[in-house]
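User
Take a look at the entry that follows and flag anything odd:
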Amino acid sequence: MDSMVWLTTTLAITIALLSTFLNTAHSFDGGSGGDTKQQPTLCEELVLPAGYPCSEYVIQTKDGFLLGLQRVSSSSSARIGYYSQESRPPVLLLHGLFMAGDAWFLNTPEQSLGFILADHGFDVWVGNVRGTRWSHGHISLSEKNRYFWDWSWEELAQYDLAEMINYINSVTNSKLFVVGHSQGTIISLAAFTQPEIVEKVEAAALLSPISYLNHVSAPMVLRMVKLHIDQMIVTMGVHELNFKSDWGANLLVSLCDTRLSCSDMLSSITGKNCCFNESRVAYYLEQEPHPSSSKNLNHLFQMIRKGTFSKYDYGKLRNLKEYGSFKPPKFDLSRIPKSLPLWMAYGGNDALADITDFQHTLKELPSTPEVVYLENYGHVDFILSLQAKQDLYEPIINFFKSMGEVSSI
């Protein structure tokens, strides 16, 4: 990068971050309880209007976060169920980074996986990790408190996904299927290395699976990694990462210059997507993106730089305190039971879940997953493609049905 371009871009980013810091520094309240502002629920916004029964649940993680879970049943007029009402197997849907449970309902009922699974007789549970708009804060921390945002995807696996699985298992008294996209796959793979979690899972389908990230090719992401945007954000005390805010939008714009066209912002982040309805982008943006933590982005960028699938790197001295070693421990994919059936789909145009990194993941797994490769799919196609029903969702349903009766616990 030309030094003048680098200086100009860095200056613009610094100004955006300073503006954020000055505008939000007053909001640290020391942790005086959760936010109480009412907002429509996911059920009310997206599921009930489509004619599908939907229930809201709130569960509490071991570290005090309150997560929203939705339970969706089939529309009586659309039901084509394979399973009886009494034997509906539970399936948990896990969204990607800067997304939430609404990701599974953004297209029509005939094109959205959440509705399709319900119509096939599955007991659909929709997960929303901490910090997203459909979750419900913390038992003692306000979202304005910096400690509310002190987590990465590691905690999403250790606490959020673990609690979702435990709760669904306790309600249904059966093992469950898991479907993850992007970040939903990395937290699944990390959680499945833990025997007390994976023993409650019948099988999993992973869309755009990620664990290793050192071959990411997305121009916008690589620009942010090279400029150490994640470290700048954390150092300047910006703990919540919200690209719907004015400063978040300005940050993305400041990363664009004549050498990196941002006329197609989505492709510069995800790779070229072949098959979603571009006329619905404005509608998608009513829901997306959701907030996440700066620490989460920092953790992911650490993995891109280091080529590791490991816990968060605090630096040698704090690593020694936290982990008892100078380097953070790796997540050992070989600990995922060979007996756990896995179905995985990846795309040739996916600039985040790169083919080389995906092959690295496959080599470390003790099992041989069923694999689907879609050459023209980008990262977003896996949840928004108009062809996803035949390309992905029907094969996933057939995979789950091939398991037979779901085991009880």
Remarks:
- Residues 3-24 form the longest helix (22 residues).
- The CA atoms of residues 106 and 284 lie 7 Å apart.
- The chain has 16 helices and ten strands.
